[in-house]
Amino acid sequence: MNPATKRPNAEVPIAILEDVNDAVAAARAAFKSWSKTTIRERVAALNAFAVALLEYKDEFARLMTIEQGKTLDLATMEIMASHAWLTETAKLELPEEIGMFAAIAKVAPAVYTGNNIIVKPSPFTPYCGLKALELAQRFFPPGVIQVLSGDDNLGPWLTAHPGIDKISFTGSVATGKKVMESASKTLKRVTLEL
């Protein structure tokens, strides 16, 4: 819903369980080669994504305005902060670590460390997440970065999926409790920002 006009925005796809299974399978397959890439290759992909994000900053700012109600100035600042997140992460010197993530907004650290990521944007503001990760897919091998949008079923499918090794969640305390409970069934590592 556009907060300024109260009119519906365009519809977005709703993932089904088969989409989750396909995404996890693609991430697992991509992990075999992506995890063996060099830090230099990962940095190059992150930096290329950051440059492309800036190329489309005006479009992303307008999109953020219609889905979140932010002013264009604030939306542009958020795009610039996203660019900084990508480029600053690419400057880090970290040891490599193995694992796979289903997360909400943790793309740069995940791919920088050789992991794959499946992102689930908020169902209330999915547009920028969907478009940004569509753009990111130009710079990474298939299956490394994926995005699924969906209804109330999608989160539980992801958190309970046995093929996902880590969950990173940013949101409410109530939902965070559900995430932790679901992840405990398969002893996944969980990071909650509540």
CATH class: Alpha Beta
Number of helices: 8
Beta fraction: 5-15%
The CATH homology group name:
Aldehyde Dehydrogenase, Chain A, domain 1
What does this structure look like?
By secondary structure, this protein is of the alpha/beta class. The chain has a single domain, classed as 3-Layer(aba) Sandwich (Aldehyde Dehydrogenase, Chain A, domain 1), CATH 3.40.605.10. Helices cover 53% and strands 10% of the residues. It has 8 helices and 5 strands. The chain has a 5-stranded parallel beta sheet, sandwiched between helices. The longest helix is centred in the middle third of the chain and has 20 residues. The chain is globular, with a radius of gyration of 16 Å. Its EC number is 1.2.1.3. It comes from Oidiodendron maius (strain Zn). This is aldehyde dehydrogenase (NAD(+)). InterPro entries: Ald_DH/histidinol_DH (IPR016161), Ald_DH_N (IPR016162), Aldehyde_DH_dom (IPR015590). Belongs to the aldehyde dehydrogenase family.
